[in-house]
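A protein record in our archive is deliberately plain, so that people and models can read it alike. The tokens are whole numbers drawn from a learned vocabulary of local backbone shapes. For reference, a complete record is included directly beneath this paragraph.
>
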Amino acid sequence: MSKISEAKNSRRIVRTFSWASFLNDMGSDMISSIWPLFVLSFTGVNMQILGLIDGIGGAIVSISQAVSGYLSDRLRKRKVFIWTGYLFAGFSRIGYALSITWHWLIPFRIMDRSGKMRGSPRDAIIADISTVQTRGRNFGFLRMMDNLGAVFGIIISILLIQYLGYKTVFMIAAIPSVLGALLVIFFIKERPFKKQNIFKGIHFSDLNKNFRLFLISSAIFALGSFSYSFLLIYAKNFGFSETFVPILYLIFTLMASIFSIPFGKLTDRIGRKKVVGISFLFWILTCLTLIFVRSYLGLIFIFILYGIHLAAKEVSQKTFVSELVPIEFRASGLGGFQMVIGLAALPSSFLAGFLWDRIGILVPLYFSLGLTIIAFFMLMFVKDTKRADN
């Protein structure tokens, strides 16, 4: 295949994955913007239980991505994990709609988050078909479409929730994910592994010191960066109406969509590590603004900062990890990274809920600030690398 044909094929694959991701996130964020309010509507639920459910979800995301990444490399198959993940996400939303107590939400949350098995194999394909000059841009475009789908989903949710209620909206939200699965099934052709890249197993010793240091830094940061649910409930407690809370979710998602491609291009230009550092700084600004600002406009600004933080973090971390790990187990490396980060999210959300309920709503912010500063300091010692492989 000529370089021109290969470039066209790469763009087609990126576009197909991006549209599938757009559809899935449309369905996902039809419920994500109202998720904390939905969970708290069940009898007996407090912030600790919300944190527990979100934490379990975060842990399952990481485990599913690690397992799918390993199996994807081991079996030399990517596609099946991707479309199966979309179907899991769709079916879980039907389960949410049928739940009658908060306990029922847990198994369906596990199914929902298990759908993230699509992430590592898909990201490995994106990394494989990209060059060092386009990898950040391609991940940025994918994240932009993710977040753009979320924007549409939030708007649909805002328009429908007051007329249809939680459960009907959740049922409708299952449809886009099924369509996303069909896109992958019919329009993505499994790319054969190169002979020299056959997977022979992954060991901790295969991961260089640079990657391990970045992994520890990211895990420390994840331990303090609690779920977005806390920001939404904070805003509700401050005085925002329940009907306005989804708009706040829309604001940070829109910011994440707008800034994903610029940050992706920025990683290609100035390096991956610097953009990860920028994402940490925006999280610090988010926490400091939450601590010191006491106005409605200030809280809206917080969600803008949070959206910019997400755009920088999601694009730069994936691009960086895909280049820090050896090509032959790229999916395993991406999945293993997400596993560690997600496992750190389990105690993070639960601990934030505990500190909120038992001590005060500002305590989780101070705790997060301390861990973020430590993570930022460790990041300074990670070497930024950009490989010239494909």
